């Protein structure tokens, strides 16, 4: 049993756990197990779980199925029946005659003693809550161990009204349940916003966040507590499940937080790498794949993807396949072998020359009189896609694609070739960040050869091919893409920032023209504020870019 400080009037446990969307009975069992441990081993008065605990987040259109709500009702009944001696605070959808609410209930000794209904329903970026829920009051107040606790849910802490209403209703401590997905810089944003609420209410705030991957989203945890002075009193580690106790005691001016463990923040590269590993692991495990297959080219993208996969599920469950062609450099073969050996994965070489030649023979009459171009290059990529998908089907392993955000943005990828696969770990990672993440991974243990990091990138689909034959240098391309995609800057604005006009027009044209490719790409992990997929929903058929260019007189 955890020793509780004598001064503690209330011990609260933050349950930063990884849930499975839709598995209501399994999630309920997790809640019961965590509550039992918090009560018996940690001497807790209250355990707080994330937003929509019982369904997982985001349940999306599962919320439209009556069977889900039947399971939620059964789950709440089970919690009331099976958990005694500790207060539970759990998130769940609530179907009522007045509508469907995103709710959180306080359960104690078999009864639901208080219920909070989320007021502010986010409907931007990856969020679509107005499709599913109606707005509630935004707070409730419950008494636990003599302390009045105000409860709010996720988005409601980002605006002043719900927290202030809870404080006006007598709350001495605020608790916020969250399912807040990662993007770069998000941790600082959360603590800054919560600090504003502390200043407005003079109440400490407990912020409990979900941990785990769900399709494109990764919830990074980093649950925390700010004291009445807006100082961080407790912070849970990122991307890790756990039960984290926090002690509170009455002070001269209000409820005080007793000092606890404050996990240090990792730098940007380390944070992103941990998120990528967690996202890959959960996608593979929650979808019950036996392992992963990766096409290893000897280049930096596939090398980084291989390292992420190994760190996610272990070397024994990862297979690397090198598929050389007539254009593959010897150094690429050497580096691919070195990467596989350094990471301890099964490695195989399968030449694409036989199928490539067969396709050329089959198409010889149809292509007669034409010069080699992207057609022949794409045939090579598609030969590789067929081989990798055959191995994936046979072994029950997921094929991880290796394309980065820079390539996906401008369509520098082959449909049914290198885009073939089930999940895209670095889909939202720009090329320059790929280099930084590779350096970070090598700082842990050198697994990516220096030559892979230092040599000019190439698809090796034609003689002496380099990426810069088809694309602007990544040092210029990535900032333009960030402005156009993530900041919604137009051609005129980007040129005004000093980017070369012709390059901006070319890049914008490539981005807009290749929306059809991205619609057919596998899902991938979101790390930016604006990722392709649920974050950025652009029409495939659109005259908007041409209208921009005409407006600019070009």
From TrEMBL:
Top enzyme class: ligase
GO BP terms, alphabetized: NAD+ biosynthetic process
Pathway participation: Cofactor biosynthesis; NAD(+) biosynthesis; NAD(+) from deamido-NAD(+) (L-Gln route): step 1/1
Enzyme Commission code(s) on record: 6.3.5.1
Active site: 51 (proton acceptor), 118 (for glutaminase activity), 154 (nucleophile)
Cellular component GO terms held in the UniProt record: cytoplasm
Residue ranges annotated for the CN hydrolase domain, each copy included: 10-250
Positions that bind deamido-NAD(+): 378, 407, 517
CDD domains: GAT_Gln-NAD-synth, NAD_synthase
Residues the record lists as binding ATP: 295-302, 402
Catalytic activity entry: deamido-NAD(+) + L-glutamine + ATP + H2O = L-glutamate + AMP + diphosphate + NAD(+) + H(+)
Molecular-function annotations in GO: ATP binding; glutaminase activity; NAD+ synthase (glutamine-hydrolyzing) activity; NAD+ synthase activity
Superkingdom to which the source organism belongs: Bacteria
Positions annotated to bind L-glutamine: 124, 180, 186
Keywords: ATP-binding, Ligase, NAD, Nucleotide-binding
Pfam families assigned to the protein according to its UniProt record, in alphabetical order: CN_hydrolase, NAD_synthase
Record family assignment: In the C-terminal section; belongs to the NAD synthetase family. Belongs to the NAD synthetase family.
Job of this protein: Catalyzes the ATP-dependent amidation of deamido-NAD to form NAD. Uses L-glutamine as a nitrogen source.
Protein name (database record): Glutamine-dependent NAD(+) synthetase
Organism whose genome encodes this protein: Thiogranum longum
